[in-house]
Amino acid sequence: MKQSNSVVHTSGFSRLGAFLRFLIIGILLSSGMYVHAQDSSAIVVDYSKPKEYKIANIKVSGTQNDKTILISLSGLRQGAKIKIPGEDIPKAIKNLWKQKLFIDVAINVDKVVGDEVFLSIVVEERPRIKSYSIIGVKNSDRDDIHKKIDLRAGEIFTDNKKLKAIEVIRNYYIEKGFLNVKAVAKSEKDSSRRGVVNVKFYVQKGEAVKIGSVNFEGNTAFSETTLKHQMKETKERVKFQMDSILRFRSNFKKFGYHPKWYEVPGTLAPTGWYKYMEHFVNMNIFKASKFQRKTYEEDKKSLIDFYSTKGYRDAHIVSDTQYFADKSNFIVDIKIDEGRRYYFRNITFTGNTKYPDTLLNKILNIHRGEVYNTKALDSKLYSNPNEGDVSSLYMNDGYLFFSIQPMEVRVEGDSIDLELRISEGPQATIANVRIIGNTKTNERVIRRELRTLPGNKFSREDLIRSQRQIVALGYFDPQQLDVVPIPNAENGTVDIEYRVTEKPSDQLELSAGYGGTTVGLTGTLGVTFTNFSLRNIIDKKAWNPLPTGDGQRLSIRFQSGGKTSQFYTASFTEPWLGGKKPNSLTFAFNRTDIVSFANGLTEPSTGFYHSTGGTVSWATRLKKPDDYFTFETALTYSYYQINNSAYLPIFNTGTGNGVGNAHNLNLSVILSRNSLDQVLYPKHGSSFMLSAQGTLPYSLMFPGPRSINYLNDSLSPEVRYKLVEFFKIKFFADWYTTVYQNLVFRASAKLGFLGMYNPKLGLTPFDRFEVGGDGISTFNILGKEIVRLRGYDIISPTSPPATIAGAAIFNKFTAELRYPVSLNPSATIFLLVFLEGGNTWQNLSDYRPYQLDKSVGIGIRVFLPMFGLLGLDYGFPLDHVIYSSGAAANPNGKVNIILGQEPE
Hints:
single chain; alpha+beta; 16-stranded antiparallel sheet; four-stranded mixed sheet; 36 strands; elongated
């Protein structure tokens, strides 16, 4: 039989041929004539008298599969007895057709010897797939479709498989809004091998179907605009039509406004403006207007949920229709039955023995006459984010098996009576706590952060807090962290499983540059190991590449400014000193070397600036007012060596010769609170820090080390500032809240004050504040703190002494909107817009907290586990600022680059 190039045609003709064959054979059999023999000789059989034969042998041809299996599938077997004519052979043929592996099946009688019959099964197999390809699609789409299509090389290509593959392709594009997609399959014989084909799927996805309009029928309580706003993904395409613009004035008149064209800007009352602009609230600018069935169904559910929150509990969609008004105008019609609006009337509790009705009603906070809102009711019963719900009250006290079921016991008119049926159950005790998935971090590092301990009563609050503490470690993917309580109602216990996924957390900082022959090579090399293990440092097996898993932090950084400067920093933190309580101990070291040059860096001079410092700090987590509070104290010592350095020109004033040493020994105490839900992209919570830092008042200590007459004008700066003395107070606060889904608002305030003990001594030139620039202090010069103010360079106080840089007082306030592009732990990316303002003052008499230099701008943050935080801000100054150099702030804005960590 000649085969067609098309699998479809081959199958069709083969089945037609088989049908005709059976028809002819049936006619011959019914006439009692003959059975075809393989050797072309006629075997005369009297079909009016069926005779029983014993199968002597069965041969199989036309298949590459195991012939024994094929015989078994037919139901025939050697030695069995069959009747000819009879049902046995037709049944065997039917069994083989059921396998859907063949395009032709025949069973022949080769010969008859006495009462024995010799049979042969002849089949023609369907072709097998050698390869398949998808033509007419993008590479990214092709990869996605390959994952969905269930086709593999070597398997038989059936009509069913072909149709399923075409359906997968069509559904893939239909879900993306390409409703007119076309897909066909063609198979071609492979010339190198018999019985195999290469399958090609040709796809024409066409144009995406854009929604021309969404129309509602039956809505009286809410406008079409309000209802369209509830459909987050099903949006009309933006239409800028001239007739809409020409109707501008008539729209005002519709709402009672009759302004002239020149009066429009000044006569818009808020309510009228809202009514006019209501038409544009749902204008689709950033959302695609493609019709997607899946999101459309979700939007219909959101629509009914919206009605439910407004008291229309019976609202439902009567019908919805989608059709093309013309080739490019896709219409969605939705018919709604709103029903009546309902209100709460009487609410009663039953089954509660632990807590009285008065307390439960106070938590519920739903009053008679309020709109019947099932969403608000559920929030008060089960899932209030702030834990102001009835379930939290019980579950925080161990009642894991607690349940509450609201029942509508009476509906009268527009009023509904509710009965809240409570089943308190027994208090559950935590039996086992298991941690799964920590491949690098030692289990004890995680367990010491948990509040859910074996033997304790179950508490949902402790469960949520434990989850937050694990996220705060920074070692695990917060999106994949799963906490699973496994209750055992029979013995009143619960097992808790924490399922974590490790993520990279160490960071590498690497940069290089060339400053010419006079400066030479510049660059930075820094590493931070956030999950270091000091105790395993002598264990060779633990070096992979470094010993890790104990939660310690080790940071080493070197920066070179070529021939002019070098900077070194190193720190080590043990977050759980002793391993039993959250007491952290930190050691830090820094070294700065800067050499001055003359004549444009061509001749070395004797000028230099050296500083060496170290810090030892201890911090502990407090229990009161709550355990989000942390108390920290730090002792810092810095030694400065100055020789004709531009960084401290005051040493060259008066009787100073430009040479001097200074010692800065100070103590800091810090009270902070941090309740942010996560580190990289906080969505809610707050953090604040209040710190006090100071030295001893050496100038007031008599007969202390500084019994010096500070009124003596001839006193040299080297003597006056040899022992640095000051006190400093700072307050930082950040607050985050979710505006909508992943859109987050951040508000921040930062204030600082540097004071003196002895007015005769004056304000120290060390440890001052500078506001402006990118806020990145790559090295420590005189202990100054640089506070970022985007859009500006360093802003100087209005009247500082000419020989001293920095200020004694600063304010800074920031408002940001953030939206994530990716929350994947391998690349966390978010965009932001900001408005901020800040300023500095030299003394309290000049202090004006609201006299701020303001800026607006946009930015992006990218967190890569290996390289840490990378960011870019573009700020535009809103105020005219003159810098100390005499230059003005650039009105075109300023770019700031962030590396490593977010500046203050």
